[in-house]
Write a structure and sequence with these properties.
alpha+beta, 776 residues, single chain, 8-stranded mixed β-sheet, 15 helices
Length: 776
Amino acid sequence: MKKKLTVTFVSLLLIFFMMKPVLGGEIEDNDKTLSPYFLVKSDDPNTDQLPLKSTSARVDIAGVIADVQVTQVYKNEGKNTLEAIYVFPASTRAAVYGMKMTIGKRTIVAKIQEREEARKNYETAKKEGRSASLLEQQRPNVFQMNVANIHPGDKIKVELSYTELLVPSEGVYEFVYPTVVGPRYSETPAAGATPSEKWVQNPYLHEGEAPTYTFDMGVTISAGLPIQKISCDTHKTNIRYKGKTVAMVTLDKSEENGGNRDYILKYQLAGGKIQSGLLLYEGKKENFFLLMVQPPKKVKPMQIPPREYIFIVDISGSMRGYPLEVSKKMVADLISNLKPTDTFNVLLFAGSSAVMSEQGSLPATAENIQQAIRLIENQRGGGGTRILPALERAFALPPTRGGSRTIVPITDGYVNVEPEVFQLIRDKLNEANLFAFGIGTSVNRLLIEGMAHAGMGEPFIVTKRSEAAAQGVKFREYVCSPVLTRIKLNFGKFQVYNVEPPVVPDVLAERPVICFGKWRGKPGGRIELSGYSGEGTYEKSIMVEKVRPLKENAALRYLWARHRIRTLGDFNTLRKDDERVKQMTQLGLKYNLLTHYTSFVAIDSIIRDKKGESKTVKQALPLPMGVPDTAVGDSKRLAFAYFKSVKGLNSTLKLSPNGIERKKKLMKERLALRKHVKVEKIIVKENKNFEPLVKALVTPKLPKLVECINDLASGGTFEIEFKINNLGSVGSLVVNRNEVGKKAEKCFVETIRKWTFEHLHNTDTVTIILTFVLTK
């Protein structure tokens, strides 16, 4: 017996018709959620909307510690005084310890203050007409710079300094400098959002547009041991050696627009060695140590117990193109290499989610594997990124008895719910471990690394297509054969305290065992590390008295404090009255570190404009390389697609002065049309389980369909009825012509004929009715 699915479908078009025109900034609407938007040139020719002119970084790597100085140059080329707001990323491990602002010949060193106090002082300075800069942390890997009172012709330079620890894996050191924050999907209502949440509402350039500011990078590596190999696959660089242990890496001049993807520099030491051992720093009041111990080589066990894998694949709009194609291939490879004793399931998510088997994971038979591969390979990408409901659904799936469950989310991480995701994973830690894959040229590393941290697994980052297969192999090896388990540290007579982490977890990759802490008295005694590897008992000892405290290790105080803050708050959802908030605030103030609760503020003593009047401009960001326009909010994307298709406006709506009034008139006409749209609910008659699936599948297909409504002959109701066969393709299709012109009918037919619904390939024929109701 054949199933029939009837859907009354108009509300998906509501997001288009309910949009307000974008005439020079964000769309303000009481019921809209926070979301990024495309840059629209202001009607005021006196306002410079792109005040950031350049961003550069100078990196000094000494041993395993990188010290980074980032310089941002702002210049006002307009005629109005500006406040510039710039959202930018940083490493998840960065300990930001300093900032200064330079105006002409005056340099102002920033002070660390509690976040609310710093913001208050900045706003006061802005109103008083003083130049000021404010650096806030919106996420552990997302910062916001505010620069107030940039006068016409002003050039203001802001420099911030941070340090981070480089942890090698498989003998390879990797320095990552994120260059751009990808657009984030948020469900927080804009009207009730807190100031710290509103950074999500940021303008973006369109897909393929080069950054409007220049980018430069210079790295000096002083390894201490002979350097064997240096590579940078993300940017074209020039490498110059100074002896065997020092190298300088500069960015090629052709890469001045390379600020649209992560800069990733990798290097290896001779013989695959890593710099393990003990580092000591003796301060005036506190002493710090860093212990790094190289683990044994990985040994594959002869017998591996049965395992259950749940692959959660992001098919949202930001994944369209390169990231989704890489995800398809990688998941297909992973599934194809499962053992017959393994079980697996696949969950796809965007605005909603769909699962391969609601009843639980399936045996890794050839038939089930092929079914999963077909399901994944036929995805196109579209919709928002609702990862939290997808994870909740994955954890709720019936587990396989007797198997060890591993959950594998694959995403670019363009979401705004990191703390909630981490908390969910932590709450379910006894039910599954988690390995997180980040895919894209500028992924949200906080989400990827945080999910793995909370799930006691390993993070994987795939920045290009060629890396997918190798990372898949790594994943299988890590899950099947831990390097070192049941680890114990014995410090003996070495008097240590405030050790991070308190307990050393299993080592799943060939990377060092790392331990931070403080010490008292005279350094001496022996540190012993023990555990179990694939070959049996493993032991390593280090003689403390042979290690001298060095002033060059002063960064250890920042690294210890940053690690402590990371443990307390990076992966937690904290209430204001939580004791950990107080602890992180005190750590930030004591160690001069940027945190979610402490900020840097620099205020000029000179009052330059007593009126204190300025125009606020949010610096537009480039979309990360390979990320399509679909990543920037579906509703806005549809509105722009519609304006573009109806009247032939260019992609950025940059019009000449004579075209501004015409633009406004055209947008008013489109707004008038929304008053004649009556919206009905989506109704699924036979099977309610299809409702979220239909929404998820049809939503990304709407832009092309919306273009067809130009030729509506009159008001009234018209329907489009079509059938989906058991192969997921469109069969018969009928358009009610009473209220539709021939041109629109032809457009509907040609558009829908191209649609595919692979998720429904294993069902009988499904009938869908799209009902449009318009009045004149």
